[in-house]
Amino acid sequence: MKSYKNILAILAAGSLMIASCKDNEFLREEPKDKLTIAGAFTSKAQFDGLSATFYKNLQLLYSSKDQTHEAFVLGLGTDVMFDPRDNSVKFNNWGLVNAQEEFATDFFNLMYDNIKVANTLIGAASNPKVVWASEAEKAATIAEGRFFRGFAYRNLANAYGGVPIVPEAVTTPKVDFVRATRQECWAFAKADLEYARLNLPLTTTVIGRVTRAAADHFLAEVNISLKDYDGAIAAATRVIDGTDGSYALVKARFGSRNTSAIYDINKDYYYDLFAMGNQNRQTGNTEGLLVAQFEVTPTGGVIPGGVTGFTRPLIERMMWSQPWALIKSGYTNVAHDSTGRGVAFVRPTNYTIYDIWKNAGTDMRTNETNIKRKFYFGPNIKTVNPAFNPGQLIPKSFLTTREDTMLYVYPNWAKFGTDRHIGGLPDNGYVRDFYVARLPETYLLRAEAYLGKSRTDLAMADLNVVRDRAKATLLTNPANVTIDYILDERARELFGEEFRMLTLTRLGLLYDRTKRFGNPASGASVSLNNNLMPIPQAAIDLNVGAKMPNNPGY
Predict the structure, then answer these.
(1) Quick check: helix, strand or coil at residue 445?
(2) pLDDT per residue over 28-50, tens digit each?
(3) Which residues are CB-neighbours of 353 under 8 A, at least 6 positions away?
């Protein structure tokens, strides 16, 4: 496992021991010593053990359950993706999204778990008994906690609006939480991210650990939400101009698939961004700002997602179609290394497959290397249909049923899978790290901030930086820069990476965009109240000391 995963064991090793008592003191009610939060953490190693929880929770955003669970935050049922198996399921049917709904509840609880851990860390770091190597080390440790607390409140405010703000560790029973306003939650997140960006390190030797650039990236977005466009531009610019470290858009081949092998030679640098082993700075990647770690050693290892029976993230399984199971096209219902083992739990919408690529020209993000649109007959096609030959392109006319194009044959984004699995095993041989934040998004956030200031010329310039890297046609008319266009560009660059649900709820556009561009079932069922997710009913019911009203419509 990656090095920071090893710190999970540190906390247990540093646990405090309770002194033994003499026999004649056994019944004394006043203890000689007691275990407290303040006394439990006295060294940097122990704080590292506690902060490991942040990274485990980050991993759980991408791989904690099977089927469509992780697709919720990536945009399930919105403008970009849907469940192709059943139009009656939640997020295809937005009427089923309610306060008992599992996906939104799990996300809510995961964010508050981060807040709980962060508050414990921040409070304990103030204990004068802690041995710090320097004040800078102490500040950086607190900054890590404040980053993840700010990240959690950014996520909560985007998704649910105003939620209870818990500024310190809760050490006694409390059942009277009160919802703050959405603006107050964003402001709280901003303060945390401001502290983090001033005190986190520029670089770290621990792969995947948060650094200053990630704090400024999310600070830029929170500032946009607060309509502090100048603050957003300043934060994004610190990432872009090198103040927060040396970052740049990748424009040349690099990493594990940059070889002369026949299956690699015709690929491109956008493909390299998503090849296994290529997400971190140590492998030549200059645009990953925060990367959730999943890679395993050559001998293998179960990923820290907790899904029984799997030793890999489920992104390929979830996002790719399953041509290997289309018997009538000459396949044997057995996955191959070159096809992967997608099972079509999530399908891109027509907006994502077709609309955003109209007049794409030479945009490499939609070429056959990066989006597989061509599928070929399998080795047994002569047996089931002698009119075709193995390896021949499957024509659209051959795909005659709904299942043919909803499950078996639809475009596969290379960023979600591979044609060269570890050990040649399509079931468990795809294990790559996931971008939580990537530099192109920083440019798109700055473009959004410029749009907020009515500087469409500068917004266009930032959009063109992203488009130029992709060899796409550049924009020439600032009048074409709208929030819709920025969202289209986010879909082109960040589909399946950005938390699309949070982007659309942040902007109050989930209803509008789903209505216009979503799967027909989602578009027909979505309501204005879905611009916010429901507060979980369990959180409301347990809060018996104060009323916690849900969002309107739930």
Answers:
(1) helix
(2) 444 444 445 556 798 999 999 99
(3) 410, 411
Cα separations in angstroms, 516 against 349, 351, 528: 11, 9, 13
Nearest CA to 369 out of 250, 290, 253 is that of: 253
Structurally, the chain folds into a number of domains equal to 1
Q: Is residue 368 part of a domain?
A: yes
Helix (H) or strand (E) holding 335: none
CB 256 within 8 A of CB 275: yes
Distances (CA, A) of 47 to 37, 130, 168, 423: 11, 10, 17, 37
Backbone angles phi, psi at 464, to 5 degrees: -70, -25
For residues 211 and 4, the answer to whether their CB atoms sit within 8 Å is no
Tokens 């650039």 locate to 213
pLDDT in tens, 46-82: 999 999 999 999 999 998 888 999 999 999 999 999 9
How many of the other CB atoms lie within 10 Å of CB of 43? 14
Structural domain that includes position 416: 294-432
**What pLDDT shows up at residue 7?**
35
On whether residue 400 sits in a domain, the answer given is yes
Q: Is residue 158 part of a domain?
A: no
- The answer to whether the beta carbons of residues 503 and 525 sit under 8 Å apart is no
Consecutive H or E run containing 540 = helix 537-542
Q: What angle do CA 413, 222, 514 make, to 5 degrees?
A: 45
In the chain, DSSP finds a helix count (H) and a strand count (E) of 21, 6
Separation of alpha carbons 143 and 500, rounded Å: 27
Find, among 197, 198, 45, the residue nearest to 132 by Cα. 45
